[in-house]
Amino acid sequence: MRSRHFTIGLLCMAAALFTSCKKGYLDIVPDNVPTIDYAFANRVEAEKYLFTCYAYLPKEGHPDKNPGFSGGDEAWTYWPMIEDYFYLDPYNIARGYQNSANPNMNYWDGYDGKSLWQGIRACNIFLENVRKVIDLQPYERDRWIAEVKFLKAYFHWYLFRMYGPIPIVDKNLPITASPDEVRVFRQPVDSVVNYITSLLDESAAGENTGLPLSITSSTTELGRVTKVAALAIKARVLVTAASPLFNGNSDFTGMKNKNGQVLFNPQYDASKWTKAREACKKAIDLANAAGVRLYHFSPSIFQVDHATQIEMNIRNAVCEKWNSELIWGLTSDGDPTYWLQTYACPQLDPNAINLSLKAKLAPPLKIAEMFYTQHGVPIEEDKTWDYANRYKLRNVTAKDTGMQEGYSTVGLHFEREPRFYADMAFDGSKWFMKNKNYNIQSKLEQYSGKKQTRLYSITGYYTKKIVSWNLNFTTSSLQTESYPWPVMRLSDLYLLYAEALNETGGSTEALTYLNQIRERAGLQSVETSWSTYSSNPTKYASVSGLRDIIRQERSIEMAFEGSRFWDLRRWKTAPQVLNSPIYGWDILQSTYEDYNRKVFLYNMQFIAPRDYFWPIREDNLQINPNLQQNPGW
């Protein structure tokens, strides 16, 4: 029986078709032809193969399978860990332990049981054989082909983002392929981008054929790809390709194949931003036609005050299942965000301590400082906000948002924007859930704080944003509502468009998209906020100033969604941002004064240009001497 959200049991059955494929690097020669013939004997078997192609998607909503959660500086975790993890790979990357002998999070060869090259191979097999299925209706065949072209493009994109220039595997090699044919070369950045976007165009083509505009069969097809998803991912690819890492970057000028082919074009090309802008606009227009809208919270059970309404606008744009803003959500294994939520959520109730709530996904102090003041400008720019005394204690009064009256906490936590209180929690803050409003008390030995060698926040902060308000618990049970992980939502697309507009002379229009996101988050427009409160009131009027605003707006709006890890790289700001120390509060203390002291936790190191890309495992370079290693590895 099919599951409700496309987590179909047939995935595991069909995956068994490929358990014998273990030749190693780019195993693209099909050695299981009899099995393949059986797989396309009829519609039922072919559908299993389609779902197998989907099964290769990385589980991006899992905290140990997406480097964006713990591989950078957005969340930190106590160390060493002896339990409460699936893989240590992302934490090793954050601590500078990446290596070329046995790379962490090695999706090239296989990580979490997934080699993306094997996924591409499965897609090619499907595309080469699906027309043999005798009982498949043409309209359904065309849709399946479009879905698999999308997946093939997405797997190439995922590898490209990790490794930079990669081989293009458009077709599987025949069984008779010579050793020289198997030893493929990496392709130039621009060629890879053109190939991925061409596949996405093919996937999204057609008015009433191929991919649907939206999913209509909610009981069986949620999580499958739509035309809007294809165009939105294309927009993301092109914005990345236009960004400084890939556009006008001289750091990789000497990166060539052994046949002399140059892999990075060091010349800046303004037309890349134009292509990105056009792709974003096309995706936004189609999203509007499909009814995709910025999410606004509408409680059906009870009424909430204005501050809570705004908070839930922000939280449920991510956590409400299949909400109006979602463009493409992953539903891996039917429980795509269970572990993410349990990693993030602290103990909320002193009378119901539940050991499944781990609280380990801890934002550092720098992330708390990233959010705006209540006036919608950076804390260091707000003329009315006491930046100099942000680490001094203040007493919480009834008028203070998101905190417990009578508590003491640092000035950093006062008069902040709604996204700060929606996204993060800390000692003295409140945590709104459907069943009640909880208080966070996390000094030493308090119920939300450190009491043992695990299940606590090393920084004193908690990632509230990614925990569904429907999570329920007792001492002995835990029920979570595992929402689909939002690979792409509309505000993300708006921010990509604003970025492309600003780089192509469209700053005024860029502001309209930023301001829609800010309005949903309870903030005034960029123009009003900067003109009235900022020490740099005309910052938004220049391309460079608005670029900085867009980047900070993106970092805030997309916080804890795995975006920052990649954004810092494509913007080429990673060396400046990631070579700064990780700080938190003194969680081993029990008094207000002692707890609220800034303490050093770790000195991250980002070595440029080496750390912009993953290393290719050394074994692969020996097997295929035509492969060139990434610089620095």
From TrEMBL:
<dbReference type="InterPro" id="IPR011990">
    <property type="entry name" value="TPR-like_helical_dom_sf"/>
</dbReference>
<keyword id="KW-0472">Membrane</keyword>
<feature type="domain" description="SusD-like N-terminal">
    <location>
        <begin position="95"/>
        <end position="237"/>
    </location>
</feature>
<dbReference type="InterPro" id="IPR033985">
    <property type="entry name" value="SusD-like_N"/>
</dbReference>
<dbReference type="GO" id="GO:0009279">
    <property type="term" value="C:cell outer membrane"/>
</dbReference>
<dbReference type="Pfam" id="PF07980">
    <property type="entry name" value="SusD_RagB"/>
</dbReference>
<keyword id="KW-0732">Signal</keyword>
<dbReference type="Pfam" id="PF14322">
    <property type="entry name" value="SusD-like_3"/>
</dbReference>
<keyword id="KW-0998">Cell outer membrane</keyword>
<comment type="similarity">
    <text>Belongs to the SusD family.</text>
</comment>
<feature type="domain" description="RagB/SusD">
    <location>
        <begin position="325"/>
        <end position="633"/>
    </location>
</feature>
<protein>
    <submittedName>
        <fullName>RagB/SusD family nutrient uptake outer membrane protein</fullName>
    </submittedName>
</protein>
<dbReference type="InterPro" id="IPR012944">
    <property type="entry name" value="SusD_RagB_dom"/>
</dbReference>
